[in-house]
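Lecture notes, unit on protein representations.

Consider one protein chain, 315 amino acids long.
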Amino acid sequence: MKPAADLGEKEAITLACARLGPKASVRRFTHGSQHFVWEATAPGHSPEVLRLTRASDRALAAAALGWSARLRPLGLPLPRVLAADIRPHKPFAWIALERLPGSDLGDEIAALPRERLDDLAAVLVEHQNRLDFLPDGAGYGFALSEQGPFRQAHWPEVVEAELTRSRQRIHAGRAVDEALVERVARAVSLARDTLLLPPRPFLHDITTKNVITVNGQLSGIVDVDELCYGDVFYLPGLIGAILTAYDLPEDYLDAWLWHLGADAAARRRVALYRSVHALGLLSEIGQRFNRETPVPQGGPLQERLEAYLARALPG
């Protein structure tokens, strides 16, 4: 099998040269789990992002185009689509996007003052609230379009599906104590009645990645292939888990909760979701996805997440 870094390289270079001329060059972004993303540059041209998607994930490329067309008119700062080819007979689907200035928030969040984190959270919550113009879903979970397909009939089933995925990965990887899965599952089961909520759409993955910033100021949002329908506070739970995993400032989560107007019930749900997502991050240990090397075992990330779950779910 070809290394992940080699997949799509020839296609990316060919696309870059076709769009920007024979002097184009490409540089691969190494993060991500599904797409292969390259920055393409050439003299006299603005940089572009080339996003290649395996044929098996072609539906995600089509969904990205659909959500871009739906959400940009609402004012969400998604990059402009410059060109695309998602035809089914090609080995890769691809999208060319404008290259937003800046980098993932995760590259600079640790150095940002509390006031800047608060401002950034306020702006992102404002963009999140723009989705209030969209109708409720006909079901719950992660959807490729407003028509679905919706994978679950109730919101607790979305949370339980996340647990099932984590359980399967942890069992296969054998790097994490499987007893943690049962402790999180028990907490979810006890709280199930509090999770019966309407299917409101929200951006579910604008955490320390997919949020492009310059000195803490928002440049734009990337990689919107799906919306999630359910509880918007699922996202702060994920943000909190990521802050724990990478030892990043809790002030950012506090700002999100403030600007979302989280009451006591919402904060309890965030704490529950944070445990679910912490387990999900643990389940990635030992997995390769499209990285060159697997997520390492036994490091500080694993130690921090396990310590968090021990505090959050004693017994």
